[in-house]
Amino acid sequence: MDGKIKKLQQRTPSLLGIEQFAKFAILLPLIKKEKETHLLFEVRSLQLRRQPGEICFPGGKVDHDDENEQAAAIRETCEELGIEKDAIHDVFPLDYMVSPFGMVLYPFVATLASPRLIKPNESEVDEIFTVPLSFFYETQPEIYHVQLQACPDADFPFDKIPGGKNYRWRPRQIDEYFYYYEDKVIWGLTAKIVHHFIELLRSTE
Questions:
Q1: 2 CB neighbour count, 10 Å cutoff
Q2: CA 138 to chain centre
Q3: Which of 61, 79, 185, 74 shows the shortest CA–CA distance to 122?
Q4: pLDDT tens-digit profile of 57-88?
Q5: CA dist 29 to 3, 92, 109, 114, 188, Å?
Q6: If residue 110 lies in a helix (H) or strand (E), which one and from where to where?
Q7: Residue 121 pLDDT class (50, 70, 90 cuts)
Q8: In a 10 Å sphere around its CB, with 0-12 CB exposed, 13-18 middle and 19+ buried, how is residue 126 labelled?
Q9: What is the spatial distance between Cα 91 and Cα 3, in angstroms, rounded to a whole number?
């Protein structure tokens, strides 16, 4: 047993239970438009089963064939926007996020060299639009709170824990971010990632 314990000294720690989480990667595309840097967003097709009509960034699930999360973000962006891989430059990572809904999200930022060549995949993308980066610099998001309450199964062994059925479960709060740009509502994880990106830019000033 001592030998097995010593082998653990060389182990690189990871996120506990990460193998049970779905891994997704997204790309925040930057484009030049009218001499200003814009962020490009997608509106998901209404024909999609998951989150139809939602505003998001290009991205999707990390496949076993992907070299890493960055490769997955680039692949998904090429598929959704109809562009070639060599049109994506200067890719860098943001902080990854662990969702309370069993997902690890890896966001990346990159520049699209030829935005005029974008031909969105109509089966996945209803429309695309851009927002000047300056808008997010000048606008603070509205933040609302969602409370998640524990709901144990009927056969949960309350008799085995202190307090039994009166055990005080700790509630979980989710902060939902909202930006309003013209007629578009950018919210949820998409808005939270935008805010994180802007805060990183501010930290370099």
A1: 5
A2: 22
A3: 79
A4: 999 999 989 999 999 999 999 999 999 999 99
A5: 49, 11, 6, 11, 18
A6: strand 103-112
A7: confident
A8: middle
A9: 43
